[in-house]
Predict the 3D structure of the following.
Amino acid sequence: MKNNNSQKNQKLRNDIILAVVIVFIAAAGLLLFVLTKQEGSTVAVKIDGVVTDTYPLSENREVSIKTGENDENINILTIKDGKASISEADCPDKICVETRAVSFVGETIVCLPHKIVIEITNEKTDDQIDVAV
Amino acid sequence: MKRFLSLLLGVVIITIQMIGFSGCDNETQPEKFKAYYFDYFDTATTIIGYAESKEEFDKICEDIKTQLNKYHRLFTIYNRYEGLNNLVTINDVDDGKHNVVTVDKEIIDMLTFAKEMYHKTNGTVNVAMGSVLKIWHVYRNAGLDDPFNAELPPMDKLKDASKHTNINDLIIDAENNTVFLADPEMSLDVGAIAKGYAVEKVADYLESKGITNFLLNVGGNVRTIGMADTEKWKVGIENPDTNNEEQPYIEYLKVAGESVVTSGSYQRFYVVNGENYHHIIDPETLMPGTKYRSVSVLTDDSGIGDAMSTALFLMDYEDGKQLVESTDNVEAMWVLPDGKQQYSSGFEAYTFEYVQK
Ligand SMILES: [Zn+2]
């Protein structure tokens, strides 16, 4: 009887340890899931309101965005170190080039003459800011 | 073993539920949509809104576009439209003088508001400054087109033009819906007022239709209509030091129904001999204002916000602060040339601490 009891206790202890381990693994998994959810922001290129391309914010690259009837307008989108900017453009006002690099979800760069919007998006998180003034 | 399996199953179910709740969207919850337009007020328009469906959002956007288009056509000083008397018609000169022009009631109301703002800001915001601003416009565009030969407008030219900026020569006949510029050499430039005024009108219209959870941004004139779904809208105030990559925003605001407008020397400028010359022209010096890097205004009325941000940008701090404190529902933040920030008494109630993820 005594022996049986301690065996039961032993079993219970094993179960508790197991439960703790499983809960820990599950919590770690959930944490990882939540963390990776935050990442994976995307640079969306919209021309006259329509998304034409998307690129991961985490990969450095340079893209030439061509607009106009004969692709005569050019904006160079540069994604570097987790930030996106227009590094060059042949638009008359150059406001897009002067706009600082963006990285927050919800931030945009606009080229009015070429009707281009560069927007940081992330399907999994809320916009970090809705608007900049 | 049985007990182990049931325990494992339990944990797995709980985990799946937690992930499920955090990841999936609830079908009854409204979704966030955005739209961009490029055809109004020579600037970009952004509409953000929460709606049950894309169709519902698009329908409201069409409504907003119709409204913006109406005000754009009426208030533009650059475009003519057949069969429509607008500000271009008022500025027209025939046989050495302006005509008495019959206009839409909306123009009468906007110009009446502009006159009110003139008096409220002690003449700092003056829509009768067209003759001066026109010269700056020409030199700025030439400088942007050909940066190596960019020039400043000659001061004597500006001074001559400034003799024709008397607001009392703008004659509004509200009974007969006519406008007349009594000085043949004067012209209207409503750049510091019309955009914000129009945004306010459109917002009023949306509110009257019961639409909520929308945000209008017409070239930096931001007006919120209700909340952003269940939370407030998050507005970043841009760092006027555009080279500061560490701190893109100097302040974060949470608003629900208010308007936020910033006037800044970093916004629209051209470069002459290595110096930046921006577009907010002081009626006293006839040169771009140099008192601040930027001024942000938070109000419940985007028209007042537009006019006040220009006025405060050009006014001495003490005068500006007094104007803000004596006006209901207006708060402001000034960024001085050394980067120091000053606030009106109620401004900081809207700020929140931004936590980097
Ligand atoms: Zn551009």
